[in-house]
Amino acid sequence: MTGAWRHLLRALHLKTLSRWTPKTCSSLNAGAFWTSVTRRGLHTKPSMPPCDFTPERYQSLAYSRVLEIHKQHLSPVLTAYFPEPLLLHQGHMEWLFDHEGNRYLDFFSGIVTVSVGHCHPKVNAAAQRQLGRLWHTSSVFFHPLIHEYAEKLSALLPEPLKVIFLVNSGSEANDLAMLMARAHSNSTDIISFRGAYHGCSPYTLGLTNVGIYKMDLPHGMGCRPTMCPDIFRGPWGGSHCRDSPVQTIRKCSCAPDCCQAKDQYIEQFKDTLSTSVAKSIAGFFAEPIQGVNGIVQYPKGFLKEAFELVRERGGVCISDEVQTGFGRLGSHFWGFQTHDVLPDIVTMAKGIGNGFPMAAVVTTPEIAKSLTKRLLHFNTFGGNPMACAIGSAVLEVIKEENLQENSQEVGTYMLLKLAKLRDEFEIVGDVRGKGLMIGIEMVKDKVSHQPLPREEVNQIHHDCKCMGLLIGRGGLFSQVRKRLVFTCQFRWASPNVPVLVPFLGACERGTQFHFV
Questions:
Q1: What pTM value is reported for the model?
Q2: pLDDT value at 349 more than 90
């Protein structure tokens, strides 16, 4: 336990069980209520919001058998959260249920994927209707759903972004976007930020600049990293830089319309162009907000200047909207719009199908023609009838339920509430984000910004799960994730937000709760 943590507990007059001893969760069933094993007088007991849905009884494999099969037959890569991974059985809107019937509030949405709610009735109905009509044709035959979907999606993008290539995953979409950029520019070099994640295919691994996704074998040729303009962890940044309701606590002397940090990071970008790539480049990939790296936002105006510099070198600009698109950021439907830029290529996945395998690349007619002159592009499953039926239903739900506006309203409310945790706790270094894409930076202290040790972050993450909250992890320091990530479904209701702050605050105080 760190000295700062002991001081925090003393200041709160808490007598608590050690947070760092291994512990398991008691039952989280829907009829339970919280009791605290800590005697505390300053904070009320958090409670879960009600749920009027009853899951089906789990009748499949025993948990022990699941673990055996996973060990024997599935990928040995350790990706599952928690020492005892959750065995999820059913989902309903913002709720998930495990094999024992325990319910959880889903603050992570299947890694930013479930956009309109688990098993949303309208999306379910569209899938079931199409399932009984036609599953697959391949692109050598036409079916009306792909044309209906293309018309709906293209209407949501500005000119000249009107040509759509439908694929199956974000990695596949970014693969294709790389190929488009090189075919159109007749150049090879592509730039992406350090900390960027653009996929884990052999091609996109070059764009992804996160250590655990790198190999000591050749891959992703022609990709060049550049400094990420991280306002919190980078060398420059202050209290006026971000397009967010919550700014970093690091002060700066910038005027509201003049960001010195942006100018410094642009100089670094120019240095990359001068020293690390050819005179002519293929393109530049950017997430409007970095996701895997822990919801990292750039200084206002940075992407606009960077896009101009890339185009001066003959490159195209690609906006990776896999996590930021479809209204998640609230103020705009697409993340690139929050930066006042117009990319040449847009990639999208995850929320596009509410969990169904679906993705797209949207570009200009000119760039599309450059690709088709060089390649007969073909995709067996891209744009299949099932995907298009589900994709259309997702777009309809987003519009009918005003989910973009909901992301703005609820996300702003959540950010402001979480900012109070930053003001209260020394280990909360930063709260940031926009709409329903939110990150919390965990640190030893606010002066050094040193990341919170692995075991402490793991314990907070685990405690949230024990309380019935599923949140994500992001950001890598020494190959360890130190940033808590909240990427709720767009339909997330403000009454669900108050439960987060006291629960997370209890975890950060070292308070252990049990259901009884």
A1: 0.90
A2: yes
